[in-house]
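[agent] plan:
  1. take the single chain provided in the ticket
  2. run structure prediction with default settings
  3. attach C-alpha cells to the ticket
  4. add a short note for the reviewer (M.T.)
[agent] executing step 1
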Amino acid sequence: MSKKLVTFFSASGVTKGVAELLAKAARAELFEIKPQIPYNQADLNWMDKKSRSSIEMQDKSFRPAIEEANANVAAYDVIFVGFPIWWYVAPTIINTFLETYDFSGKKIILFATSGGSGFGNTLAELQDSVSASAELVEGKLLNGKQTVESLEEWVKELGV
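[agent] step 2 finished; step 3 output follows
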C-alpha cells in the first residue's frame, strides 16, 4: 500500500472541506498550503482587474510565497494536490508549492473545486513546475456533495 499525502490550497474553505474528506477516504496525511499573506475578500474579487488574485493570474510567472515549506513529501509515494480553479487553471500558489519540493518519482494527483469551469489548461501549466520523473495526473473536479464513501471509490479507481 502506498503512503499518501493530501495537500490543498483553499481560499474560501470549500476545497479544505473536500480535502479533509479525501484524506479520510484515502487514509492519508493532510497538509494545508497556506499563502504567506492570506487572501481576503477584496483579493478574491475576480471582477476587479486590480484585485490581488486577478493580478497574479494575469502573470503566469507570479509565485505567491507560502507560509510553511515543511511538508515531508519525501515520505510519500502519492501526493494529492487540491485547489480551487481560478480562471480555468490552478492558482499560481500551486506552482509555488510544486516548485518548493522535489517530487521526483512521485505520483501527483490533482483535484479541484470550481464554481463552473473545468480543469482547462491546468495540467499543462503545472507540468513545468515538477521534475520530469514525477507523474502528474489530472484527477477530477470534486464539486457538489462529496462523501467519504464516494471518495473511497475514486481512490480505489485510481489504484493508489
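[agent] step 4 note for reviewer: The mean pLDDT is 93.
[agent] ticket updated
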